[in-house]
């Protein structure tokens, strides 16, 4: 029997790993997003995507986990929502140029090396229309797992570790990193802090996060 990957195991073990509530920042700034196409990178079970589908946007999503995509399709069907989703590695997928009003990259850029993140961001920028938006959430070095990883894993690049368990990198971005990646964008919202997470696990816990929304003005 084929051994499940880390993410397949995670999604298999929960009816809904992340719940169905969209990120508060997306809800708060949704009025700014022009009607059109939305792309959710690392869509998971679809909670952020569903929010925009309900509002009449044309929504697409990609995730590396087959199980996550299956669950996303199931929940979309239950809610009578039409969403196009596929399994894909964000390092390899192509993003249609100038197509999207919003591209969501929440909680997923941390699992790549800096160079890979830069390459994904280039594709995000090309995929956005003028005056459209990107929404980003990443773990920062203030996250409790940073200290733990620093003690147990080898740092392969600045603020970057490699996890054999996940077979992926763990890159903790700083606020300066985020602003540098999108230095040609207008900052709509950018906050670094500690956030309470009650979406998964056996008990509430905290993460060090950076939440960013920027607008492509050129």
* Main sheet overview: 7 strands, mixed
**Per the principal axes of the C-alpha atoms, what is the gross shape?**
globular
Number of strands: 10
| CATH level-1 class | Alpha Beta
CATH topology: Rossmann fold
What is the tally of helical segments? 7
- Give the ordered list of helices and strands: HHEHEHEEHEHEEEHEE
Strand content: 25-35%
Low-confidence stretches: none
CATH-defined superfamily: Vaccinia Virus protein VP39
Strand arrangement, major sheet: 3-2-1-4-5-10-9
Descriptive account of the structure:
- 29% of the residues lie in helices and 32% in strands.
- It has 218 residues and is of the alpha/beta class.
- It has a single domain (6-215), classed as Rossmann fold (3-Layer(aba) Sandwich).
- A 7-stranded mixed beta sheet has the order 3-2-1-4-5-10-9, with helices on both faces. A 3-stranded antiparallel beta sheet has the order 6-7-8, with no helix packed on it.
- The longest helix has 14 residues, at 114-127.
- It is globular.
């Amino acid at each position: 029997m084929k051994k499940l990957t880390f993410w397949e195991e995670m999604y298999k073990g929960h009816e809904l790993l992340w719940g169905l509530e969209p990120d508060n920042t997306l809800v708060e700034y949704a009025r700014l997003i022009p009607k059109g196409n939305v792309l959710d990178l690392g869509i998971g079970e679809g909670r952020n995507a569903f929010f925009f589908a309900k509002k009449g946007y044309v929504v697409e999503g990609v995730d590396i986990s087959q199980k996550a995509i299956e669950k996303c399709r199931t929940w979309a069907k239950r809610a009578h929502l039409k969403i196009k989703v596929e399994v894909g590695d964000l390092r390899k997928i192509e993003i249609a140029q100038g197509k999207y009003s919003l591209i969501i990259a929440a909680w997923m850029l941390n699992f790549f090396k800096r160079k890979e993140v830069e390459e994904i961001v280039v594709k995000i920028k090309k995929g956005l229309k003028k005056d459209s938006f990107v929404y980003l959430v990443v773990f920062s070095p203030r996250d409790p797992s940073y200290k733990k990883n620093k003690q147990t894993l080898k740092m392969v690049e600045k603020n970057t570790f490699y996890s054999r368990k996940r077979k992926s990198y763990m890159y903790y971005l700083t606020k300066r990193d985020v602003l540098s990646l999108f230095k040609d964008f207008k900052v709509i919202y950018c906050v670094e802090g500690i956030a309470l997470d009650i979406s998964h696990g056996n008990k509430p816990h905290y993460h060090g996060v950076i939440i960013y929304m920027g607008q492509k003005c050129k």
